[in-house]
Amino acid sequence: MDLAERRNRIDDIDAQIVRLLCERALTAIEIGKLKSDAAVPIYAPVRERHVLDNVRRHSAGGPLKWEAVERIYIEVISACRALEDRPVIAHYGATASFTHMAAVANFGGECRFIPCDDIHDVFNAVEKGHAQCGVVPIENTTGGVVPATVDRFVESPLSILSERYMGISHYLSSKGSLAEIGQVYSHPQVFAQCQRWLRENLPEAERVEVSSSSKGAERAAAEGPGSAAIGTRLAADMHGLTILAERIEDYALNRTRFWVIGHGGNPPSGKDKTSVVLTTRHEAGALYQSLAAFERSGINLTMIQSRPSKGASWEYIFFIDFQGHKDDERIAAALEDLRRCSLFCRVLGSYPEEE
Predict the structure, then answer these.
(1) Which ranges of 1-40 does DSSP label H, i.e. alpha helix?
(2) Spacing of C-alpha 134 from chain mean position
(3) Is 194 strand, coil or helix?
(4) Known catalytic residue at 99
(5) Domains in the chain, start-ordered, CATH in brackets?
């Protein structure tokens, strides 16, 4: 088969792909009508995880990397979902921030994204119905848990619908040269992830904290050659900045976990994670008794974080993640034990666990 014949073969395959995509889209429209009649939420994380797992099985052994296939299929899902209704997604940070990129990676491009300067504003947008879902950071492998996210959940009726992990790479960008930089703009968590590089390369530069890394790029662009920003390559491109240094994070395996928040919940997927918030009695062994409920049921904890209670001095609220779904028999039994030995316990959500 010569070059022309192979190109004709590609054209035939493309025609088949488009025909099948249209067929998929028509089926999605039918599903959308059924979901609308039944008042089922448009975002279904468990179903979307099932679709991606199915595609992954079919792509195994093929020449394409799974990451590439996943990106393609997330956009296919996004385009078909938009035929039902174009979702509105609130996210922390400006356009081109890491949370915005996580939102696009999770929902695809066929959404209307609302940037919010504050994590509180993301919760508000979803609680008041201005957005169907919100995306907020919850923890980073270097900087730890994001306090504003866990604190806001104490008073919010929203649930965690899904999680998304993203590898995080930081870029130093400016309109000037490295020697000209007198101040660097970025988010506090970003500075925490790039401390070594900054000490070694810009020890005299002032670090100016802003609400998001993309806001830092905006400030650096406005102030000129003496200012720089640390953030995404996309933010640098958007604001006309030149990349001066790439991948300046202190640890190569720098990842951030994001939560998708919204109303409602998920059925079991077969591989889930559950998050809870609780307060314990102010007495010796109270936390041990609460955690023993997990040990007795053989439940694996994946995160535990304490935060000061705003209601009383020297009392703490605990956020706990563990493997399993709240409706699983052993998880339900452990939660019942947890409620008996805690002053307050609320399930924040059960959602598909991302690998």
Answers:
(1) 3-37
(2) 9
(3) coil
(4) no
(5) 1-85 (1.20.59.10), 87-165+254-264 (3.40.190.10), 171-250 (3.40.190.10), 265-352 (3.30.70.260)
Two tokens at 217? Answer: 């790029």
User: What does the block give as tokens for 185?
Assistant: 């703009």
Identify how many contiguous H helices and E strands the chain contains and give both numbers.
12, 15
Q: Catalytic one among 98, 153, 191, 258?
A: 258
Exposure string of 258-270, with b = 16+ CB inside 10 Å and e = fewer, is: bbbbbeebbeebe
> Splitting the chain (355 residues) into consecutive groups of 10 residues, what average pLDDT does each group show?
91 97 95 87 93 95 94 96 92 92 96 95 98 95 86 93 95 96 94 95 96 92 96 94 96 92 95 93 76 88 85 76 95 91 90 91
Given the residues 99, 232, 256, 279, the one annotated as active site: 256
| The length of the chain, given as a count of residues | 355
Residues near 344 by beta carbon (within 8 Å), at least 6 away in sequence: 277, 278, 279
Q: Which residues pair with 349 in a beta bridge?
A: 275
Residue 207, phi then psi, degrees to nearest 5: -100, 115
Active site residue 191: no
pTM: 0.90
